[in-house]
Amino acid sequence: MLSVTCQQMQDIEAASFKQGHKPESLMEQAGAGIAKTILHYFPNKRNAVAYLGRGHNAGDALVALRILRDLGWQVGIRCENALHELAPLTRRKLRELGDDFYYNQKRPEKDSIILDGLLGIGAKGPLREPLALLAGEMNHHRVQGRSNTIAMDIPSGINGDTGEVYDGAVIADLTITIAIPKTGLLSQNAVNHVGSLALVPLEALTPENIQPSQPRPLHLTTRHSIKRKRRSFDTHKGQAGRVGIWAGSEGMLGAASLCAEAAIRSGAGLVTLFTPPTLYAALASITPREIIITPSINPQDLLKSRFDALVIGPGLGSPVASLAEKLFAVIQETELPCVLDADMLNLIAREKRLDLFRKNTILTPHPGEMARIYPASEHFSRVPTADNFTSEYSSTLLYKGARTLVAWEASPIYHNSTGTPAMATAGQGDVLSGLIGGLCAQGYPNLEAARLAAWLCGEACQLALRESHITEETLTASDTIAHLAQAFDALT
Ligand SMILES: NC(=O)C1=CN([C@@H]2O[C@H](COP(=O)(O)OP(=O)(O)OC[C@H]3O[C@@H](n4cnc5c(N)ncnc54)[C@H](O)[C@@H]3O)[C@@H](O)[C@H]2O)[C@@H](O)CC1
Ligand SMILES: Nc1ncnc2c1ncn2[C@@H]1O[C@H](COP(=O)(O)OP(=O)(O)O)[C@@H](O)[C@H]1O
Ligand SMILES: [K+]
């Protein structure tokens, strides 16, 4: 969904009020959506404390808090403003929690949920007292109490238009933005304060007829903006997509195995993994039985079978020159959707074969690989890099990072909403490339496959963290695969 400035959001709100929508009804819908999102990621009852400012942002937090309390959560508030200073609607939402609620203020306990309802799109400039004090308290409890902070609409102390981070701004693990994403949330400067993103759509507030504020529009990929395919009843495995993978080398068998497993878990009907004959036995012992493993020394084999998509690169290492030439020839010849990942990108950079970045290819560089294939990226921030790169090359680009970007030619630059720092662990990229290949093989257009795969991987990891035996420290790429089903299920 297109992102908007705070002023554009306020104009859309004002227009909806003119049409007869009521602020209280919108606030109830926003609060209900926030509570639902919190329960999606934190399904077990906890202690929740809402930090309140004076405006309607606090009202959203109070509605969510009321819903959580009705479901048996222990809830409380922190507010340094006098009651009479609160906006009338916000005061009403506070009263609905009980007359004594304001006077029995609470601080978060260990492992709490902290709701940031200090400031939303009505914020002007850096945090002023008493909100600066409360933001400091929230950030302290988040670290000391290992609590999770969830920002209502935008993290307080962030400029919603530019993403500028003011002193003492709230650090959120998850920002639940209301109705339409605000452009500042997508800024790279703000990423450590925004965390992962979720959207609560409101029917009355949609971005129709809004002019993008940038020449290349910035969109957020959320669960609502991805369409999941349904199969017809008589689908057979040949129609469900055939993926050919060239991956792995001595010491990097796991990359090949994870990539192939993710491809079959994406829904692809048949996945074939080509491997040097010397690695066959070892790879067969760690790869799911559903994967066809074919010993091969010639990448041309990728062109001989009837595949619907190819993935080349995970764990490839540094192939000898003759193998490299054969891989280049395959990439040059194939018209299939072709994911080029990891060492394949390094190889292309090293041999200066950027002519291979054709329309059917999907490139998945992390910033290090990006600097090799496109040294200009070191002089630009992420969005201009994605913009310039896709203007120069006709490939679909998936530029990995804490806010993964996906773009193609003149498409909007899509910012992925899901993900967690727990993903900073080996093998996540191999899962991602396998997933993209599997989705392409099922007929998702390249851009859609890349957006969906990035969203699914991030969502799977966020959902994995709900489980008591998986933490930020212990999450592995295998856990990502194991939670893909829940991620698919979370799509509307
Ligand atoms: N208006 C509506 O119909 C809806 C509003 N919603 C929520 O309401 C929010 C906007 O509410 P408001 O317009 O009341 O604005 P805020 O809740 O952002 O509060 C703005 C008030 O905070 C104070 N303030 C501004 N900048 C400050 C600073 N730097 N330091 C300290 N105090 C500062 C001022 O008193 C200002 O009036 C949205 O972000 C969203 O969360 C949602 O409930 C959806 C519907
Ligand atoms: N802090 C983070 N927040 C969100 N996603 C992350 C974070 N760190 C890594 N990721 C994601 O994990 C994946 C890692 O890919 P990559 O670095 O290629 O891993 P590998 O090569 O080990 O498989 C990318 O999709 C990246 O976007
Ligand atoms: K907020």
UniProtKB/TrEMBL annotation:
Residues 9-210 form the YjeF N-terminal domain. Keywords: ATP-binding, Isomerase, Lyase, Metal-binding, Multifunctional enzyme, NAD, NADP, Nucleotide-binding, Potassium. Its EC number is 4.2.1.136, 5.1.99.6. It holds the Pfam family YjeF_N. Its cofactor is Mg(2+); K(+). This is Bifunctional NAD(P)H-hydrate repair enzyme. It catalyses: (6S)-NADPHX + ADP = AMP + phosphate + NADPH + H(+); (6S)-NADHX + ADP = AMP + phosphate + NADH + H(+); (6R)-NADHX = (6S)-NADHX; (6R)-NADPHX = (6S)-NADPHX. Bifunctional enzyme that catalyzes the epimerization of the S- and R-forms of NAD(P)HX and the dehydration of the S-form of NAD(P)HX at the expense of ADP, which is converted to AMP. This allows the repair of both epimers of NAD(P)HX, a damaged form of NAD(P)H that is a result of enzymatic or heat-dependent hydration. Catalyzes the epimerization of the S- and R-forms of NAD(P)HX, a damaged form of NAD(P)H that is a result of enzymatic or heat-dependent hydration. This is a prerequisite for the S-specific NAD(P)H-hydrate dehydratase to allow the repair of both epimers of NAD(P)HX. It comes from Rubritalea halochordaticola. The keyword Nucleus does not apply.
